[in-house]
Amino acid sequence: MGDLERVCVVSEAERDLLLSSAAPIVLLRQKPNAIASSVAPGLPHLGAFLPYTPLHHLLLDDLGFPIVATSGNRSGEPICIDEHEALSALGGIADVFLVHDRPIARPVDDSVVMVAAGGMVMLRRARGYAPEPVALAGADSIIAFGAQQKNTVAFGHRDQVFISQHLGEMEGAAGSALCQRTIAEWKQLYDLRPELAVCDLHPDYRTTRLAEASGLPVLRVQHHTAHVLAVIAEHGLSAPALGIAWDGTGYGADGTIWGGEWLHVTDEAVTRFAHLRPFPLPGGDKAAREPRRCALGALYAIYGRDFPYQQLDFTASERDLLLSALDRGVNAPLTSSIGRLFDAAAALLGIIQRCSFEGQAAMLLEAAADGIETEELYPFQVTPVTNLDETTRYIIEWNDVIAALHKESDVGLTAAKFHNTLISMLTVIAQRAGERTVILSGGCFQNRRLLEGAVKALRAAGFTPYWASRIPPNDGGIALGQIAAAVRERKVAPCV
Hints:
Blueprint: H1 2-7, E1 8-9, H2 12-19, E2 25-30, E3 45-48, H3 54-63, H4 83-90, E4 112-116, E5 119-124, E6 134-135, E7 142-144, E8 154-157, E9 160-163, H5 173-190, E10 196-200, H6 206-212, E11 218-221, H7 223-235, E12 241-251, E13 257-265, E14 270-276, E15 279-280, H8 291-303, H9 316-328, E16 334-335, H10 338-348, H11 360-368, E17 381-386, E18 392-397, H12 399-405, H13 411-433, E19 437-441, H14 448-460, E20 464-467, H15 478-490
Parallel strand pairs: 2-4, 7-10, 10-11, 12-19, 14-18, 19-20
Antiparallel strand pairs: 1-2, 2-3, 4-5, 6-9, 7-8, 8-9, 12-13, 13-14, 15-16, 17-18
């Protein structure tokens, strides 16, 4: 602990987590110039943990100094648990392998947590926490397959939901195989006989296909509904509530990409109460890895062709090709995602144009605002729209926000004002909804500044906010929300 405190600031709550039996990785504020700048470049926090196995203690006692460590896997693949697998997958990366003759039964990552808004927030739930169950009356004989990224699976069994360890990305064959293996092992371990499979609404997720191949009746649950219901289940809450689900992407009930959603939860239904004004993503999935594309799509939604796009980080041929695709609506799906709006802002401020890992742009934008204290924000409008059933939903107009960003010069102040604007948006819509209970969910609420600012603003306005704590706010909590949706469905409460 003394070595750790020489390089990071450790609060009492963080110390307790580091020394707990779960021994998770804890995000800590790093001290200036204490660690090489190539470790977590541009970010004020480091993930740190203390030795928790005899081998760790032997190695570190022998070395006598802290080490920088990373997980034993290629990006997007599960961690290796067999030396032959490790040599094959990582032979071109690692110089030396330390092996043992004791077999590893299953891959289990280190859990990752942070202290925010007065308590622990789980970011990756695995060793030390999984499969601790969540109580949920009516959860029995249900299997939930989760989503596509940061995935977990879950089982409803005797009024409890057991959530697997973090399984990771499901796009590749290795992730899909791990998902199937985990399900098979859990069925045997708990003598499970599921009667219903639950999956995401997205038709092309591997987990959706696994659910369809299970031979069970399948219930498909909209992604952001699952986010909100996961927090409701974790805290044992009852409807009514307003659920705010902000993330990078989720297949919407209308076939577009959602991600900036306010959902009204009643005993009878979950309905879309408000959302961000959609904008196009040139190149589709590529936009999630290239914030410059998000910026281009957002500016195009405001100005059309009437903007000096040469200011953006594109070659002339790239720019012309993407603008042509936007003109024709080709491979430019619409999104209401707050996560993609974060990406657009980061690109317009010159922070990052292409990402090397998921969520990097939003993390760097949060880091840019670190230490900046201001109550300033950008103007935005709320447009009421009448639905076919004559109910009202609201569209949040962000045009003035993006229009202002590319004219700003103070990156830190601008990043802080951007966060303040989002916090104001969620509070304004909460006031229109009028529900005292407000749920904060989705990967965007891994952002400490956003989460703490939202909690403070909502409480000041008289609301009671709840957010993911023991369950990740990201897609690691989706499986729990899917089972909660299935329990509601059994009570005849349709979800969007």
